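Subject: Sanity check before I submit

Could someone independently write out the structure tokens for this chain? I want to compare against mine line by line before I put it in a report. The sequence has 97 residues.
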Amino acid sequence: MTTERGAGRISMLGPAFATKFLYFAQGPEAHPYLLILDKVVATKLRPFAWRNSPTEGWWPETFASYCTLMENWAREATDRAQRHVRPDEIEYTLFRS
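---
Independent answer below. Compare away.
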């Protein structure tokens, strides 16, 4: 959804809104893998796991790494909580913290 230079292909649909679109396009029944990455979450994540990461304007590889990180943390939380924890729960907790 970006040009080779990193600009958005659709006006007013930047990286944060594009990730929101992908998240909701999965539908309500899907196990969410594509998550919402915005400046708030990226900034709050930096001290814990992404020290040198950008806080806006993500490339597909960065977004994929973020989704994988949240999936891994959800798996670890599931083991500890003895219930299924979804990756978007971890993301929401970061957003609200």
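---
OP: Matches mine. For the report I'm noting this point. The helical segments are 15-25, 39-45, 60-81, 87-96.
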